[in-house]
């Protein structure tokens, strides 16, 4: 993370940033990412299958299936009132 932040980017691409981490470390990483977002005005493009990470980090959500967008919108809306059956399955499995 330090190498990515040293150049003071406006956007970071995070591909499964907490995979293979235990829950305690995962929470610490997410808290650190949220802190950087607040303090540095960072934006993240977060790629993940972990719905809990999406709940903790996302403002906007895009759900892809086979490379196509099946649902998009504010995180609260997509996560609580999913319209597409695929999104509903993902949330039910979480």
Q: Mind sketching the topology for me?
A:
Blueprint (H helix, E strand, L loop, with lengths): L1 H4 L5 E5 L7 H18 L2 E5 L3 H7 L2 E6 L2 E7 H6 L4 H9 L1
Parallel strand pairs: 1-2
Antiparallel strand pairs: 3-4
Report on the architecture of this protein.
This protein has about 90 residues and is of the alpha+beta class. The protein has two domains: about 1-50, no CATH class; about 60-94, no CATH class. The protein is about 45% helix and about 25% strand. It is built from five helices and four strands, in the order H-E-H-E-H-E-E-H-H. The strands form two sheets. The chain has a two-stranded parallel sheet. The protein has a two-stranded antiparallel ribbon with strand order 3-4. A hairpin with a 2-residue loop joins strand 3 and strand 4. The longest helix is centred in the middle third of the chain and has 18 residues, at about 25-40. The protein is globular and about 40 Å long. The mean pLDDT is about 95.
